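fyi for ur records
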Amino acid sequence: MKTPLLEMKNITKVFPGVKALNNVSFQVAQGEIHCLVGENGAGKSTLMKVLSGVYPHGDYSGDILFGGEIQKFNGISDSEKAGIAIIYQELALVPEMTVYENIFLGNEIKSANGFTVDWNETIKRAVEALKKVRLDVNPAAKVKDLGVGKQQLIEIAKALSKEVKLLILDEPTAALNEDDSENLLNLLRELKNHGVTCIMISHKLREVIAIADTITVLRDGQTICTLDAKKGEVSESVLIKHMVGREIDNIYPSREHKQPGEIVLEVRGWNAYNPALGRDILKDINFNVRKGEIVGFAGLMGSGRTELALSLFGNPDGYRVSGEMYIKGEKKHFGHTSGAISAGMAYVTEDRKGDGLILIQDVKQNISLANLQEVANRGVVNENAEIKVANEYKGSLNIKTPSIEQKVSNLSGGNQQKVSLGKWLFVKPGVLILDEPTRGIDVGAKYEIYTIMTKLVQQGMSIIMISSELPEILGMSDRVYIVSSGKITGELPIEEATQEKIMQLATN
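which gave:
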């Protein structure tokens, strides 16, 4: 049998109160694309951090064999010297630096004198690295001026410049549109043909099935199985069953589509101008939301869906807004998000780590954050009241955490999303805006989020759901509005909505 390029044997990693990895073992063969799947908190990212030296030798038990030799990485620099490169979901590029500076950051090419950087050689090699990833950009361009898809390719170019043997990608397509995602998957196939071995972590099971040679499933910090795609062992239903430990026949909870109630939110002739961009981003938007319904907003990335949500929710980005908004028949205009909250509106951001949560604070502090007056007395937070509220939401939302005093940064993505949701449910809104509510979370956690949404509308709440996943739009919405280039190009009752109709309207 061929010696594997990588073998991890009996890896165990413990955090305070949590055994993140429990005797995990798996192998990766030379020149294959090996996918790691599992629910949030299953241990995938932790395992890769052990492999890349983020968690150094001695901080875990078990052995890493790379190229047939036992490795004792004490940091990322050690794993990089061995030929291992890892690209995280949150890209590690410096926005203000150029493409070529980012590619060789930390790996600078020295001049003959050994004291200065040889910029001419740096640019030359950067161009070569960009060609390998089929990215045609000016190497002198600043990274901040490029889209997320191009930034992802720059990260890969950076890895290839170090003569990588094993490339690890953690949720590489989570923030990409369909075209950029397909481009990235094609690139991984090309790299495989050139002898680069890849490990990819992804929640997008269709992409996993499309690209993987082998798939290892982790659950609760343990290896469940490794499946060989070439032998036909892989399907979405099989992966889901291994990931969650049970079969989920329908990822979308069954819900009786009742006749919706009265209009609770109505927007007429809504426009927004972005001074930073110097152009209109929303043009003559008209829509309404009724009590007890989920209204989906579909559209391509950059269509204006998030800008619409923010302009309604107190306009925190300072757009020049015109038009009319009515909440329960009363005309409203908010100069601040606090006004929107007081009027019964809440907004769960698509970027839970950047905008939704304070990661260094604990669960209870994050949940009470948007409604501190409810747990305060004369401006001082009543900690007992805060604990009571946090425990209520921990139970009702099934937040998996050892304690409500656990830092949010230590929770899985799905549980972070539940904390973000609990924070906004605590303001007791009538209209809840969910922006990409299941981005970057696994199928089991998605089902839990969908179940929570179903219960909320049954209790009379109204939900606006912005999503780039068309199956999610079709599976959860009562009605769908389609947004394209800042305009609403169509409205479809769910009975008439199809992926084809939505895409046609989204590209108008």
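The first strand starts at residue 6 and ends at 15. thats all i got for now
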